[in-house]
């Protein structure tokens, strides 16, 4: 099930509006399923500047280590500290408690250029 109210990247990150110009970011159910059991997540510090398309962290599973890419450019304003020592929350609830960071977007309109649920569904069906 792909939530209709989120935006997505081809690298399997999702964005949800959190506040004016601020977006929660996480990895999709498709991504966590492909990774398998997630055991560790490395996230940026609050205040870090990120550029759209650049790696800003890593998710480590029992199978591999995968980069997390910034869906939009901006500043990290919150990090999900609940994942420290409990990264498996991403597997259990990737669209809820398993969120990774909150980003204050440099250009909130850039979110509109990301994939909607139907386009992301098509991407994952064909991969």
From TrEMBL:
Residues 22-104 form the Lipoyl-binding domain. Its cofactor is (R)-lipoate. Keywords: Lipoyl. It comes from the Bacteria. InterPro entries: 2-oxoA_DH_lipoyl-BS, Biotin_lipoyl, GCV_H, GCV_H/Fam206, GCV_H_sub, Single_hybrid_motif. SUPFAM superfamilies: Single hybrid motif (SSF51230). Pfam families: GCV_H. The modification N6-lipoyllysine is found at residue 63. Binds 1 lipoyl cofactor covalently. GO terms for cellular component: cytosol; glycine cleavage complex. GO terms for biological process: glycine decarboxylation via glycine cleavage system; protein lipoylation. Belongs to the GcvH family. The glycine cleavage system catalyzes the degradation of glycine. The H protein shuttles the methylamine group of glycine from the P protein to the T protein. The glycine cleavage system is composed of four proteins: P, T, L and H. This is Glycine cleavage system H protein.
């Amino acid at each position: 099930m792909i939530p209709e109210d989120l935006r997505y990247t081809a690298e399997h990150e999702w964005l949800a509006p959190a506040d004016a110009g601020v977006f929660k970011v996480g990895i999709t159910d498709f991504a966590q399923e492909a990774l398998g059991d997630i055991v560790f997540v490395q996230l940026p510090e609050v205040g870090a500047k990120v550029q759209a398309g650049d790696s800003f962290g890593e998710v480590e599973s029992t199978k591999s280590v995968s980069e997390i890419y910034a869906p939009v450019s901006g500043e990290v304003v919150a990090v999900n500290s609940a994942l420290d020592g409990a990264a498996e929350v991403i597997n259990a609830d990737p669209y809820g408690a398993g969120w990774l960071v909150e980003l204050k977007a440099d250009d909130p309109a850039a979110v509109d250029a990301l994939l909607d649920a139907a386009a992301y569904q098509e991407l994952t069906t064909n991969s």
